[in-house]
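Dear colleagues,

As part of the handover before I leave the project, I'm documenting each prediction I ran so the next person doesn't have to rerun anything. This entry is a single chain, and its sequence is reproduced below.
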Amino acid sequence: MARDEFSELRAFIAVANDSSFTKAAAKLGVSTSALSHTIRGLEERLGLRLLTRTTRSVSTTEAGERLYRSVATHFDQIRTEIDALSELRDKPSGTIRISSAIHAMEMVLRPKLATFLTEFPDISVEVSINDGFIDIVGEHFDAGVRLGESISKDMIAVRIGPDWRFIVVGTPDYFARRSPPEHPGDLTNHQCINLRMASAGGLYAWEFEKDGRELEIRVAGQAIFDSIFPVLHAAVDNLGLAYVPEDLARPYIDDGRLQVVLNDWCPVVQGYHLYYPNRRLASPAFAMFLEAMRYRP
């Protein structure tokens, strides 16, 4: 059905319901003359008179009554369905698929998920843990979570966490046996725990910055992991030095199990952002998720 035909039928049903052009026009938000013109156009297209007009009343003709009985119920169903869709908007539902690094999941998403899922019981959230870069469009994710500096410019990015920094840590026992490094270059003489990242093309180079000078150090050691949590735990287990997010190591630093070295060389990185294609039409569920995850200092 063309839009004009739909408008004509809607206008006809309104007039037939109220037996009045004036009342129907007020409900439809149009002028009486515009409504009369619409009905006249419908009658001319059908080649039938649908309404009998007098100075005091409006009534349906035989053809008009037949048309009214056949289409009015369908318009009621359409109105019911539209109301149902409005209810979905008011009570968002569906599944949201997110790709996230493990650190972002644990430190940024996880603290907010319980509250969000409790508030929106009809929404499900599926999180796929992936520390590398993936094509969220090709893999059918609604969004991804990555550091702000690593997000493509053709994506919309919304900050969901604060800035943070990497630090180098080791146990007191380790430093009792070996002198702490005083410069990033000294790390080549230490037992270090490596992180393998597909996005880095192999083992992740430790990054440092001081007074505008940037360094990348390739370290060596016996232990290599592909996730940041085992790297941290290996440092706690005295297997060597680790380069980890400060917030992950903080509990172990506070209780004395780990110590920080090269503190003035450790760089701050942009916080985590939720990113998604700029052409994406956000569903009500995704819009609610986005607002719930948004970082508010």
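Residues 15 and 275 are 50 Å apart (CA to CA). The chain is about 40% helix and 25% strand.

All the best with the project,
I.
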